[in-house]
């Protein structure tokens, strides 16, 4: 066997072990007994020890140095690029630190859930201090030999090639037009919302049907419930979760469609890439572009909501709205609210921008953990004009920081920007898309996304993946133009 064959065989085994660890994480968030948290932390620590040893194995360096990239085809060169990047990052992180991070972040998830349920930040603060200290230590190790600051060093795990400075510029262009649009909307009459109570079993039946509608393959996946909806896995085992609320069926419907976007990306990647670095989504920003375009530009479109209106009435009877146009407006209402995952398209990015700024301060050492609740509340009131009523609606609402995912949050807004670009290109290529969506047929859109983006997995770098699919460099303009046109139509200004 050649050095490249040896390298790929070793990498496949490592990624198979990583998939097992991912399944343990899925179990922890869906059905693990509460009392198993401490043991699960030790299990994660043990597995991370094995994985880190493999990811930093000196044989990887030997194989990489002995392979001539010019002798490889484009796919093999891309595999090599990913493996080299992973190896160069792994060798900077001490094995002790990698294992401790796995253990502490696993345990922190349970403590966070308890603190959130109690609305008690003090209950979580000591554990959070540990998480942040470990992630700062990791960032300092990854920073070596680069021009990255601490936050940028962590951000590369989620969006390689991106930087805080670039995102700052993009978000600086987004913020004023989003705020202006929100202010116009808040000065207009609000559409009517749904009324009634919505049986949770019927919600699950409807969301299961919608998942299939959007192309989710249940032979290689399943839907479960979790506190925080997520997608897990790749290739032949891609699972999603959702949550239900008897007062708000949109929570379940659009959480499900969002996670289906993630899952379909993974399920539609070229099968030849299974258990290789190309066999998963190339970055979280690109991943979010899929979940957001499924959820918003498709799922909240006037055409698709006309179809969904009929499905809702069939499932629940009288929902307090008697027209498809009224239902479209109800789906897209812009209301004050605390929770990012329940936010409308206009205000969603403002939630993300708040977190982006605060987490850079946390990792940079400019914001102490004890001061986070007050900093969050002050920023939230400044951005949204509403005082935070309780900590579970404030800085404890998301699981990302408790499990150490610093550098992750801005990929949500980057994904929205990418989705705006993809939507513009999709509409140009499929001008009669609405005639299918109004019948609940998403195939013209999802097939376009599979062909132009999803099948390639990690073949190209994140930004190049979007350029290849759209035919132009991504900017925030398509997203802003889409939002301004859509909500001017709904709110009549």
Automatic annotation (TrEMBL):
Zn(2+) binds at residues 258, 262, 288. The keyword Zinc applies. Binds 1 zinc ion per subunit. This is Metal-dependent carboxypeptidase. Its cofactor is Zn(2+). One of its GO terms (molecular function) is metal ion binding. It is an enzyme of class 3 (hydrolase). Signal peptide: none annotated. It comes from the Bacteria. The active site is at residue 259. Keywords: Carboxypeptidase, Hydrolase, Metal-binding, Metalloprotease, Protease, Zinc. Broad specificity carboxypetidase that releases amino acids sequentially from the C-terminus, including neutral, aromatic, polar and basic residues. Its EC number is 3.4.17.19. It catalyses: Release of a C-terminal amino acid with broad specificity, except for -Pro. Pfam families: Peptidase_M32. InterPro entries: Peptidase_M32_Taq. The keyword Metal-binding applies. GO terms for biological process: proteolysis. Belongs to the peptidase M32 family.
């Amino acid at each position: 066997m050649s050095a490249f064959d040896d390298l790929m065989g070793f990498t496949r085994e490592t990624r198979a072990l990583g998939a097992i660890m991912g399944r343990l994480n899925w179990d922890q968030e869906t059905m693990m007994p509460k009392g198993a948290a401490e043991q699960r932390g030790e299990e994660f620590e043990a597995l991370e020890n094995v994985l880190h040893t493999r990811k930093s194995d000196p044989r990887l360096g030997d194989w990489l140095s002995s392979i001539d990239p010019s002798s490889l085809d484009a796919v093999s060169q891309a595999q090599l690029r990913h493996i080299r990047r992973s190896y160069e990052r792994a060798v900077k992180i001490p094995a002790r630190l990698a294992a401790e991070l796995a253990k502490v972040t696993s345990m922190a998830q349970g403590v966070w859930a308890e603190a959130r349920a109690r609305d008690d930040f003090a209950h979580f603060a000591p554990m959070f201090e540990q998480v942040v200290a470990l992630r700062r230590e990791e960032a300092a190790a990854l920073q070596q030999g680069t021009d990255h600051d601490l936050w940028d060093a962590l951000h590369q795990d989620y969006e390689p090639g991106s930087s805080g400075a670039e995102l700052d510029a993009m978000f600086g262009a987004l913020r004023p037009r989003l705020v202006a649009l929100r202010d116009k909307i808040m000065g207009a009459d609000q559409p009517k919302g749904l009324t009634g109570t919505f049986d949770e079993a019927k919600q699950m039946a409807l969301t299961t049907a919608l998942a299939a509608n959007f192309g989710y393959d249940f032979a290689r996946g399943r839907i479960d419930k979790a506190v925080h909806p997520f997608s897990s896995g790749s290739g032949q085992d891609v699972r999603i979760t959702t949550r239900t609320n008897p007062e708000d069926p949109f929570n379940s419907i659009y959480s499900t469609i969002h996670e289906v976007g993630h899952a379909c990306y993974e399920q539609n990647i070229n099968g030849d890439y299974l258990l290789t670095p190309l066999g998963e989504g190339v970055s979280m920003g690109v991943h979010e572009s899929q979940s957001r375009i499924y959820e918003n530009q498709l799922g909240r479109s006037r055409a698709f909501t006309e179809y969904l209106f009929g499905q809702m009435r069939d499932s629940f009877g009288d929902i307090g709205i008697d027209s498809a146009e009224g239902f479209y407006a109800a789906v897209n209402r812009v209301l004050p609210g605390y929770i990012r995952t329940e936010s409308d398209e206009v205000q969603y990015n403002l939630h993300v921008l708040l977190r982006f700024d605060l987490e850079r301060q946390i990792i940079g050492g400019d914001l102490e953990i004890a001061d986070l609740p007050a900093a969050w509340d002050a920023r939230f009131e400044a951005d949204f004009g509403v005082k935070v009523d309780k900590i579970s609606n404030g800085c404890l609402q998301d699981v990302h920081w408790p499990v150490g995912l610093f550098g992750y949050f801005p990929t949500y807004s980057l994904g929205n920007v990418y989705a705006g670009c993809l939507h513009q290109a999709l509409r140009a290529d499929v001008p009669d898309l609405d005639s299918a969506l109004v019948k609940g047929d998403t195939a013209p859109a999802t097939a376009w996304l599979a062909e132009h983006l999803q099948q390639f997995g990690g073949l190209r770098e994140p930004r190049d993946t979007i350029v290849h699919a759209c035919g132009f460099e991504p900017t925030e303009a398509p997203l802003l133009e889409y939002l301004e046109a859509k909500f001017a139509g709904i709110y009549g200004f």
